[in-house]
Amino acid sequence: MKNYSYVYVAAKIDPKLKELVVKVAKARGMNVSDFIRFLILRELAELSFLPEDYKKAFGLAKGGGE
């Protein structure tokens, strides 16, 4: 088991959006915290704030000549 150091972040969202987040997280076999971390990492990778490997891991890397 890995040791992670996390900080708490909170955000207010519409109750209907929360229901959708819970539903999708459950359908993916994830808890809500893991799903939200996944979404944040995917967005940061897409915006090129993370290494190219993250883009590849999330299926965001553009095809090209490498």
Give a verbal description of the structure.
There is one protein chain. This protein is mainly α. The protein has a domain of 43 residues. It has 3 helices and no strands. Helix 1 packs across helix 2. It is globular. The mean pLDDT is 90.
Order of helices and strands: HHH
What is the approximate shape? globular
Q: What is the typical, i.e. mean, pLDDT?
A: 90
Distance between the termini: 35 Å
Structural class: mainly alpha
Number of helices, where a helix is a run of at least 4 consecutive DSSP H or I residues? 3
Low-confidence stretches: none
If you compute it from the alpha carbons, what radius of gyration comes out, rounded to the nearest whole angstrom?
Answer: 15 Å
Largest sheet data:
none
- Beta-strand percentage range: under 5%
Number of β-strand runs: 0
What's the structural blueprint in terms of helices and strands?
Blueprint: H1 15-27, H2 32-46, H3 52-57
Helix pairs in contact: 1-2
Fill in the keyword field for this structure.
mainly alpha
What would you say about this model in short?
The chain has a domain at 15-57. It contains three helices and no strands.
